[in-house]
Amino acid sequence: MHTLDLDTVEMTLDVMKYAIGRITNKNPELGHPRREEDLLAEVGETITPKGIGGERAFQLFRDVLIKATVPIDHPRHLAFVPAAPTRAAVLFDLVTSASSIHGAYWMEGAGGIFCENRAMDWLVSLTGMPKGAFGVFTSGGTAANLSAMVTAREAWRSRGGVTDRRGIIIASSGAHSSIKAMAKVIDAEVLLVPTEDLLTGQALSERIAGMNPEDRCCLFAVVATGGTTNAGIIDDLQGIAEVCEREKLWFHVDAAYGGGALLADSVRPLFAGIERADSITIDPHKWLFSPYDCGAVLYKNPELARQAHQQEGSYLDIFKDEGASGFNPSDYQIQLTRRLRGLPLWYSLATHGTDKYKWAVERGIYLAQEAARRIDSQPGLELVREPGLSCVLFRKAGWDAVDYTEWTYRNHRDGIALVAPTKWKAAGQSETVLRFCFINPDTTIEDIELILGTLRD
Ligand SMILES: *Cc1c(COP(=O)(O)O)cnc(C)c1O
């Protein structure tokens, strides 16, 4: 099973040929989900005592199963937050697997962790965080947010914070669902400040002033968003930083989606204040063109993260020995055994240089602006608000939620695009609207026009 015989070599070549074909295909077929029963009826049992053979399994995957998936890097996949990993990064993802490096401890993973750390140096430099700030790559934004929240809570308790009651975190109503979900994991409560647009320092200050004294004692962190997933809205990071410093609260910025835009001169000023954060989440698998999965958590004071996350175990002691000293990624987030998921990002950055990354992020912002201009001038369409980063929200006159949903399914079924509706709340009213989110620099103006064409009366 672990030797490479002739059959396996042939299979490997077939698989590699397929992989290279897919990596170079910039316009993959827009697949559709199918019911599990139907897939099972078509492919049959695949896990059997003797195995069905690599050739057969691969054939089923290639001819049936992959067609029941939606390629996230399709240039007209503008739903959710899509992705567009660079070809260099995808290729190096294969190398990362082939290299079998344990990414937890320097003792085993030094050369690979070295590469991750260079990519991390660059991420830290984008934020402008002070000297000493550093971070690690995680499985995604959710794990990064959780790692930061655990660090914040532990730092607060070790400073004498309340231990017999649940901690409290303040976030805006635009915060990502993972903040609420991860607060449950650490048994903390989240107070949402209702905001239609950005969360300001003023609104945060008022929310804190309105808390009763027992609750105020349990408040330990504020989560601001550096680009809401729905609309690309960046909170008033400068104002929030000031309040957090005054009130001695942990200041976390969730820039899982928006973090890539730190590269873009056109919007960088909107992030002013992010350099004052205690921790920041950035997802390279969103707007920094890494393959899944790759998130990152950055800390102003990594030592606090180490105190919160370092695991103990007699068989792990050797890794803490002087002779093995070096940076141990597992000490700074929730996961022990880990893939070197920052390696594809490193290789791609080294290959292309950071200027290309800057160009590719600006391209997403440009596409959002161009889409907005076309929406503005098309009869029956109306912008809900000016684009935020690379998100465009718009409505079609006379349409309700059912119309939007049917349109989404129709376009997907016809292989045209995957664009999904979302909700937008203004003046207390929630409305279903359409949303574009641009990540892929290969998306063209013609792609946008093709989609808008399906919205003409
Ligand atoms: C996507 C996103 C997350 C969650 O990240 P995952 O990588 O999906 O775990 C968290 N916060 C924001 C703002 C996001 O856009």
**CATH homologous superfamily identity of the largest domain:** Type I PLP-dependent aspartate aminotransferase-like (Major domain)
Numbering strands along the chain, what is their spatial order in the largest sheet?
Answer: 1-7-6-5-4-2-3
* CATH top level label of the largest domain: Alpha Beta
Number of domains: 3
* Structural class based on helices, strands and sheet pairing: alpha/beta
- Which architecture of the largest domain would the CATH scheme give at its second level? 3-Layer(aba) Sandwich
Helix content: 40-55%
Strand content: 5-15%
**Largest sheet report:** 7 strands, mixed
- The secondary-structure element order is HHHHHEHEHEHHEHEEHEHHHHEEHEEH
Bound molecules: pyridoxal-5'-phosphate
- Ranges where pLDDT stays below 50 over 5 or more residues in a row are none
Radius of gyration computed on alpha carbons: 23 Å
Search tags:
alpha/beta, Aspartate Aminotransferase, domain 2, four-stranded antiparallel beta sheet, globular, binds pyridoxal-5'-phosphate
Explain what the structure shows.
This protein has helices spanning 6-24, 36-43, 54-65, 87-99, 106-127, 141-158, 177-185, 201-209, 213-218, 237-247, 284-287, 302-309, 317-320, 343-352, 354-377, 401-413, 445-453; strands at residues 134-138, 168-172, 189-193, 219-225, 250-255, 279-282, 295-299, 381-383, 391-396, 421-426, 429-437. With 457 residues, the protein is an alpha/beta fold. It has three domains: 6-30 and 33-69, no CATH class; 93-351, Aspartate Aminotransferase, domain 2, CATH 3.40.640; 354-453, Aspartate Aminotransferase, domain 1. Strand 2, helix 7 and strand 3 (189-193) form a beta-alpha-beta unit. It is globular, with a radius of gyration of 23 Å. Pyridoxal-5'-phosphate is lined by residues 81, 140-142, 145, 176, 178, 225, 229, 254, 256-257, 283, 295.
